[in-house]
Design a protein that fits this description.
mainly alpha; elongated; 0% strand; 90 residues; single chain
């Protein structure tokens, strides 16, 4: 029973952390893309002036950054919940 309550209580926190992670990852990606590609804006998949290689490289980089930021934010959130409640969110 307490696991359900703990999970239910963590759900809104997890959603907010996910939104924050997406925002943070987007900012980091744009900065990394500027530095690595020397271009101000990353290509979109439908940009006909960009080649497959550039588009797929941008997507891979964006995905990797998002996954790392999301994992770090989720882990930090879980640790914060444990510090506050004494229980790990399940």
């Amino acid at each position: 029973m307490s696991k359900r309550i703990n999970k239910a209580a963590y759900k809104p926190v997890g959603v907010l952390l996910g939104l924050a992670a997406g925002t943070i990852a987007g900012v980091i990606f744009r900065q990394v893309w500027k530095v690595t590609a020397g271009d101000g804006e990353a290509p979109s998949a439908t940009d006909e002036d960009r080649g497959w290689g550039e588009i797929l490289a941008a997507a891979a980089l964006q995905g990797a950054i998002f996954a790392v930021v999301r994992a770090a934010v989720d882990r930090g959130g879980a640790m914060g919940v444990r510090r506050l409640t004494g229980r790990w969110p399940n």
